[in-house]
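Hi Y.,

Following your request, here is the sequence exactly as I used it, all 264 residues.
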Amino acid sequence: MELLPHDMDWGVLGLLLLAAFAAGWIDAVVGGGGLLQLPSLLLVPGMTPLQALATNKLASVFGTATSSVTFARRVRPSLRTVIPMAAIALLGSFGGASLAAFLPAAVFKPIIVVALLTVAIITLVRPSLGAVTSLRFRGRRHLVIAAAIGAVIGFYDGLLGPGTGTFLVISLVGLLGYDFLRASAKAKIVNFATNVGALLFFIPIGAVIWPLGLVMGAANILGSLLGSRMAIARGSRFVRVLFLCVVGVLIVKLGVDIWVEATA
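Below is the corresponding structure, written out as tokens. Let me know if you'd prefer a different format.
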């Protein structure tokens, strides 16, 4: 089995590994690493969008697994909430992945930009948001809302992907009342489940480029180790600042995509 896809040189591989490392770091702190990793895969000659999405999931599953373990050991998120949420997110991601080959991303991008702008404005005008954990719901209602978040964002991750961790963090902070650090800890576990859910669809249809995905996965692990430890050491304020930076980049990137597609 060849390491490089057809017509791909070692220079492109180096850029992909750098993108995978950076994506692992960003994902570990606040999510949004797919903003780097998925577009970089689309630059590979001859790679289809479906192959890029599938290979991105393979690389990401290693990084999210690494950061999930690190956060679970040091932050100790409540498994009573996160396990059901992750299970439903996995199913949602499988469903989204099954539609990824049929629905154009352009349909969803304007909606996502509006959602991100709303998230950024709320986070900016409410500096206390996510500073400390102050749960808004308890018991069954808390679990139901967490499960709904998992289902919706899991479906999105299987269908498109970039920004999934970011959406998970802001949903856990804004809707459930977690601080940014604990929201990030839960988001990593759920994001790992969504990656697995998508792969359960992509692997049987042969969409994954295994050698490339595994090599990028190793780089993703290194980035995740560094990012998760930095987030835990620096706390919620650091995560909040980086969160706003990632949201801003996501808005610009998706806005440019919409403009290019509209004027093409």
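The chain has one domain: 10-263.

Thanks again,
Q.
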